[in-house]
Structures are given as structure tokens and as C-alpha cells.
Design a protein that fits this description.
single chain; 79 residues; mainly beta; 6-stranded antiparallel sheet; 0% helix; globular
């Protein structure tokens, strides 16, 4: 699977938090099906791992797929 990690920055008027850099993302049970739920395992530069309950999304207007884990969003280029 090829993907890009979408930069999520919600701080507009507050100072941004120092967030660890993502070095690896693994996805279990991924299907190219809109609203399919799967597990995303994110590994950070500081060694922490986080398992996220994620949802596969398909945008009909742009024809693009994404995987939303609330804390991390992937723009899927190729399954």
C-alpha cells in the first residue's frame, strides 16, 4: 500500500504542541470499501506505538481514498 500522511494541525490561535514524528504505519484488515473499519498501528520516532480504530473513506467527487484514525489520517495512493 502506498500512502501519504496528512498533516493535521488544529492550532490556529494557540501554540502548537511538539508532536513526535511518525516513522511507520501498519494497517490490518484493510479493504477498499467505503466505511470499512480496520486497525492502524502507528510507530513514532520516540519508540511509542499507538493502535487506532480507523475508517476507510472514499470521496466520490475526487475519486480518492483515505484512512481516518482521528489522530492520524492517511491519503491512500494505491492499495
Amino acid at each position: 500500500m502506498k500512502y501519504n500522511i496528512r498533516k493535521m494541525d488544529w492550532a490556529k490561535r494557540r501554540p502548537s504542541d511538539e508532536k513526535p514524528t511518525i516513522i511507520d504505519v501498519e494497517v490490518e484488515n484493510l479493504k477498499p470499501e467505503h466505511n470499512h473499519f480496520c486497525q492502524m498501528i502507528v510507530t513514532y520516532q520516540n519508540g511509542d506505538q499507538q493502535t487506532l480504530f480507523s475508517r476507510v473513506l472514499y470521496n466520490e467527487k475526487t475519486g480518492k481514498w483515505s484512512l481516518d484514525g482521528m489522530h492520524v489520517v492517511l491519503d491512500i495512493i494505491e492499495f
